[in-house]
Design a protein that fits this description.
The complex is a heterodimer. Helices cover 39% and strands 18% of the residues of chain A. Chain A has 18 helices and 20 strands. Chain B has a two-stranded antiparallel ribbon with strand order 1-2. Chain B has a two-stranded antiparallel ribbon with strand order 3-4. Classes of the chains: A alpha+beta, B mainly alpha. At the A-B interface, α1, α2 and α3 of A face α9, α12, α13 and α14 of B.
Chain lengths: 489, 466
């Protein structure tokens, strides 16, 4: 009976071997995948097992950690001025995961990042409790406050950039939410989360980065830049050959002007009073492909603008026909942009044609405040030459300075301000309330420290006729710029 | 006259008894377990656990008693079986105690610390082990109880049908004052005795009276009878008790023993065909089995929808989180699996806290026990002993494979316990008895042959010295 016995022995050996192979497969090959699986509660437990690092603005944390007496989660995230900073921080919730900086820099904030390996090892030897590192942002507390206060109860967003470096100075979105309200996993956290999810106003949406709006007339600066760059216009004060009314190419639709004196108006004048006909014709002259080229240099159609929180891609249609291109040149048709994108446009012009890559994380710090990563300003592209940028600056400053300009409300004493208003119609047959836009930059003797884009979506309490970019969005932009200028003093 | 004066060249081969090897290994096994226990205490509470002395002494006592009994009553027994079983049992106790410390468990309403109870059951198990060694002087005595064994094992198997199902399977009986028992664990041993006795008598008929058909030796109808009966029984267990594990175990054990007894491959072919037919047949109308299979195919698909799938998914994540070296005893979160974490899923704790390294060590210890069992079967001199040893060690191997494979997602989960490690009284007691019988057989097998009778010619061929 020994021969079958030996075979059974081999069979038993194979059973054990199968188990060993399976074990290696699970614990070696698939270990990482299983360990970071979305259902694996250990990820959450680990995230809240130690005091989480902070997100810092102007040297002060805008987040915190509170100790709880929970079995699984020892610490809970807290936020200072949660609603105001939510578009920057995102949230970190025990029950609902995390997003934005809280998610992207989770490794540093929890202290689990490979970059913090040395600190972890040291903490192990010194017996210190493990702590997370800090994320130092580029934001300006004063600018953010001005933006958030300016938006107030209105629905909208503000994005402000330092044109010289690309540092994001303000990122506000209203209505907002308090990430503290669902930081835990108790019943009230779930209630708060569900209420936010169901809210028709979408308070969790980061409008400054993740929502695209029709840019309306603010897009005319892009058209102007394209016209200058591609040689359609050399002298901004020369009269253009624009009929009144201007008929869209290949159609019988006239381009309606809301301003007077647009017939043959110069580029300067056309931007000052925001002539639709001039820019529609100019866009048509430049042509779709060249318009597209300039728009893309400003950042349109780029799905990977990472600040590091990824901004939604702004759109300039690549395949539209002539008349649509003409409409797009004044920010209509399906042209759509994020507030950040329009701030980038203003910033590139203010920075003499050089577009800096926008970013909002200045540096990452270890728990002992050693810098583990420092972000340096980075050039993204050159949408227009220095000469043309300065011509556009003249035009944009004229919009604010000229008595008939639409951007008068953005004037600041002691600084030069350039701007462009926009009132974007949307909805079928313009049935909905238009969006009020304002993009601008401020300039002192030492160059421009700030460029802002403001969009006010729906301003309840303002009668429809009063909604204009200059009137609604202009003052908010001015306050943000003023806040930055004052903090520079 | 003494052996020394016998000048024949054939002397009795004095096989080494290896009892001192066993003692050393036992010390090692107890030390590892105590160390694991201390490790858990230090990791969870930052101090040596209060019960450490009691645990250490208790385990040492059990090891000492069993060793002394083996030394006295089975001096030539295999030296590895006892230390390996002690190591698994002691280590299992440390793991169960570790799970007792879980705050998540303590928050459950049904929570009751299990380690003390398990230590008590281990003591009962060792007592049974000692009893087997002292009372069972020769394993061949068991042959006499072939048919009684059949009746007892059938009785034990059918018993749970009359008790309510627990967690979807009817494998427990509830005796007031004693607690719940899993008769299947004991039936496993008793049915092995029946198979051995029966097959030893019928092996020639089964092996030789057959017709050759398409290269296979087909058994005669009347010899096929018993295999059909066992097949039917295992199917019935599966249907009425929804116990996939036990039916698989019995059937597998029977096929293995049949094959060894008859040396005919055709029996294996039949066995596999019939088990496949049975499994497919039952799976088509038994929702419990279907659930297990879908949970096995994609554990994460049923997340939040069905408990079985979620348990497997949680178990897989525990293994994954352990990685190569594990989190360290007491520092994992395997208790997330829930109520079964200290019984069916106890290996997940080993996987998470000791990592791939620890798991491979544990699997190899199980493998070694099986290997020593098979070796005992090879060494045994009588067919009954051979069959019993291979039956028991085969059953042990299948059980380990089915449970470990289940919690690691290799095969559908069946809901049996990991021998010695898992929390559960019946399991630990029955497995101690199983090891006891194996040790008894190995003692008989390794006992040196009696010295040959002195040769009457020895004097005649004496060399004449000058």
């Amino acid at each position: 009976m020994n021969k079958p016995l030996r075979r059974i022995a081999i069979f038993c050996g194979l059973l054990v071997l199968a188990l060993l192979i399976r074990d290696n497969w699970l614990q070696y090959v698939r270990a990482d995948e299983l360990n970071s699986h979305k259902y694996n509660r250990r990820v959450q437990i680990e995230r809240y097992a130690y005091e989480r690092g902070n997100i810092i603005v102007d040297g002060k944390p805008i987040t915190g950690s509170a100790e709880t007496n929970d079995t699984d989660f020892k610490y809970k995230r807290t936020y200072v001025d949660g609603p105001m900073w939510a578009p920057v921080t995102g949230y970190a919730s025990q029950a609902f995961d995390a997003n934005q900086i809280e998610k992207l820099e989770d490794g540093v904030l929890t202290g689990n990042s490979d970059q913090l390996f040395f600190d972890r090892t040291m903490a192990m030897f010194t017996g210190d409790q493990k702590r997370g590192g800090n994320v130092v942002t580029t934001l300006s507390g004063a600018a953010q406050k001005a933006a958030y206060k300016g938006l107030g109860s209105k629905k909208g967003a503000v994005a402000a950039i330092d044109p010289k470096t690309g540092k994001i100075l303000a990122l506000a979105s209203t209505p907002s939410y308090d990430p503290s309200s669902f930081a835990g996993y108790a019943g009230k956290d779930e209630k708060a989360w569900n209420a936010l999810e169901k809210d028709k106003e979408k308070p969790k949406l980061n409008r400054a980065l993740r929502e695209v709006y029709p840019p309306g007339s603010t897009f005319k600066v892009v058209t102007a830049a394209a016209a200058l760059e591609h040689g359609e216009v050399d002298d901004i004060n020369a009269a253009t050959d624009t009929p009144e009314p201007y008929i869209l190419p290949n159609t019988r639709t006239p381009m309606v002007n809301h301003a007077n004196g647009c017939k043959n108006a110069s580029l300067m004048k056309a931007l000052e009073v925001s002539c639709n006909s001039v820019f529609a014709k100019l866009g048509d002259q430049v042509g779709r492909d060249k318009m597209l080229e300039t728009a893309q240099k400003f950042g349109f159609n780029n799905p990977e603008i990472d600040t590091p929180v990824r901004a939604a891609a702004s759109v300039y249609n690549k395949t539209m026909d002539r008349s649509s291109n003409a409409l797009s040149s004044i920010g209509q048709f399906d042209t759509a942009t994020t507030p950040l994108q329009m701030a980038m446009v203003a910033a590139a012009i203010a920075n003499d044609g050089k577009l800096m890559k926008p970013y909002m994380i200045d540096q990452l710090e270890a728990p002992n405040l050693d810098v583990i990563k420092k972000n340096e300003p980075e050039e993204m592209s050159r949408p227009l030459s220095q000469k043309n940028a300065q011509l556009l600056q003249q035009m944009m400053e004229n919009v604010v300075e000229s008595p008939t300009g639409t951007g008068g409300k953005a004037k600041i004493n002691g600084a030069t301000v350039g701007g462009k208003t926009g009132t974007a119609q949307h909805g079928e047959n313009n049935s909905k309330r238009p969006y009020a836009w304002f993009i601008s930059y401020a300039k002192t003797d030492s160059g421009s420290p700030v460029a802002v884009a403001v969009v006010v979506e729906d301003s309840s309490g303002t009668s429809r006729d009063d909604i204009t970019g200059g009137g609604l969005a202009g003052p908010i932009a001015r306050d943000v710029m003023q806040a930055v200028l004052e903090s520079k003093k | 006259m003494s052996v020394v004066t016998n000048t024949t060249t054939i002397g009795a081969i004095e096989a080494p008894s290896r009892r001192n090897t066993e003692l050393m290994l036992l010390v090692f096994a107890v030390a590892i377990s105590v160390f694991a226990y201390a490790n858990v205490g230090l990791a969870i509470n930052g101090a040596l656990p209060a019960g450490m002395l009691g645990y250490g002494i208790g385990l040492s006592l059990l090891a000492a008693v069993s060793h002394l009994v083996v030394r006295k009553f089975a001096p030539y027994a295999d030296p590895l079986l006892l230390p390996l079983a002690t190591l698994l049992n002691g280590f299992g106790l440390a793991i169960i105690w570790r799970l007792d410390q879980s705050e998540r468990f303590q928050a459950l309403k049904t929570f009751a610390p299990a380690a003390t109870k398990q230590l008590m059951f281990s003591a009962v198990g060792v007592a049974l082990f000692v009893g087997v060694l002292i009372l069972l002087k020769d394993h061949r005595i068991l042959q006499r109880y072939t048919y009684i064994s059949m009746v007892v094992s059938l009785f034990l198997l059918v018993l749970p049908v009359f008790f309510p199902a627990v967690n979807g399977a009817k494998i427990w009986i509830n005796i007031p004052g004693v607690g719940t028992l899993q008769p299947g664990e004991f039936a496993k041993i008793i049915i092995a005795i029946f198979f051995s006795g029966y097959l030893m008598v019928k092996r020639d008929a089964l092996a030789l009276a057959s017709r050759r058909f398409m290269g296979l030796y087909l058994p005669r109808g009347r010899d096929l009878g018993p295999i059909l009966v066992v097949w039917a029984i295992s199917i019935l267990i599966l249907v009425f008790e929804t116990d996939l594990g036990t039916s698989l175990l019995f059937f597998g054990m029977f096929v293995v023993m049949l094959y060894v007894a008859t040396e005919r491959t055709s029996w294996i072919v039949f066995g596999l065909l019939m088990s496949a037919a049975g499994a497919v047949g039952v799976a088509t109308f038994e929702p419990h089995v279907q659930q297990r299979v879908t949970a096995w195919l994609d554990p994460f698909a049923g997340w939040g929808k069905e408990a079985a799938s979620e348990q497997i998914a949680k178990s897989l994540m525990a293994f994954g989180s352990g990685g190569t070296l594990g989190t360290g005893l007491g520092q994992g979160h395997s208790d997330l699996i829930g109520f079964a974490a200290n019984s069916d899923f106890i290996l997940a704790t080993v996987g998470e806290e000791l990592g791939l390294a620890g798991m491979m060590a544990v699997l190899l210890i199980y493998g070694l026990i099986v290997e020593r069992g098979v070796r005992t079967a090879l060494a045994a001199r009588d067919p009954f002993g051979k069959l019993l040893a291979i039956g028991l060690s085969g059953a042990f191997a299948i059980q380990v494979f089915v449970v470990a494979g289940g919690v690691m997602g290799l095969i559908p989960l069946t809901g049996m316990t990991m021998p010695f490690i898992a929390q559960g009284g019946s399991s630990v007691i029955a497995n101690w008895a199983l090891v006891g019988i194996l040790i008894r057989i190995s003692d008989t097998a390794r006992r040196p042959a009696p010295a040959p009778a002195p040769s009457p010619d020895a004097e005649m061929t004496q060399v004449v010295r000058p």
